[in-house]
Amino acid sequence: MNERLVLCGGARREATGPALRLALGGAEQNIKLRLEDISRAMVRPIPDRIADLTEIAAYVYCADQGTSRGGPADVGMGARWRRRFRFVIPVRDPDHWSGRAVVELLHSTLSFLSDDEYEFEFEQASSPPPFQDYLAFGEDDPAAFGTDRVVLFSGGLDSLSGAIEELSAKRTRIALVSHRSSPKVHDHQKRLVRALKHRFPKRILHVPILLTRQRGLPVREFTQRTRSFLYSALGCAVGHLLGNNSVRFYENGVVSINLPISEQVVGARATRTTHPLVLDLFRRFFSAALGASIFLDNPFIWRTKSEVVRAIVVSGCGDLIRETVSCTRVHEATKLHTHCGCCSQCLDRRFGVLAAAAGEHDPVEMYRIELLTGDRDKPLDRVMA
Question: For residue 77, which of 264, 262, 268, 258 has the smallest C-alpha distance?
């Protein structure tokens, strides 16, 4: 098992091996976190626990990215897949985070989510960065007043369909929280948000969240199993700014439950991003951590991909389908081929679109390899298909 000591925010400990050092501020800063386009109407005093949670989630996510699981050619027969993390994190309220109820929920939540082992040591932060340092202000937005719900918005088909459903069903105002994982994806997110704002004026607040590595901090693992922990924690932070404790994921049930496609896909080799147990663990942990009743749900748990796509078309927003991005290989995307056509998300998307008879809104030219007739010359691509 791959063991990793993660020293955060300037913490010091003796290490028997190379430690991963992470910092969101100060002279050693190598992570940049920004909640962008924040309306000044949203700003209110931020409790220490919200600030601590935001930093804990960012450190966990960056440690996940910075610690390899062994790669596709792991000669140890998967022995390095599971990792053991030991975090030392300075926080504003160490007694609270070290409390048995909170730390046990943190362990169980992350362990099920990423299939790793975790140990946390919290110490008093001597000079933590003000939470306002993470806020980048934009223009005041009327949707910042009286927002009914926080919706996590990736720019994929499911989150688009969910946003449309929220806005079509009643006169709700929603905050769309997006993770700016890539400039290419962010461009699509912005175009989708502009189109939705045109259709539903003064009812959408968009909060892009930027988390970037600096000073040569490497990425050694691309599975990103803890991404939804970061995403939902930041959703809770935005919800607090808006005075709202309801955070909503939209993911079709087939992907959310994610039954294994082969006997080799065991544990968290099948992503558990929005698995029903994960969302329940998120709810319990965030409620205990923040001392408030946090509500997280996934209204699409009983829907298929084709039903999600069909709802977009029926709502009159079928033209937005081509602007969505589902592909995991974003770094390979071009202006013509926005999707690889090989990864599991591309396969799910294309089958769902065709089953919903919505192919006209999802041109085949968008795919580098066409679903049914494309030549898959790489062994892993053939295995996935």
Answer: 264
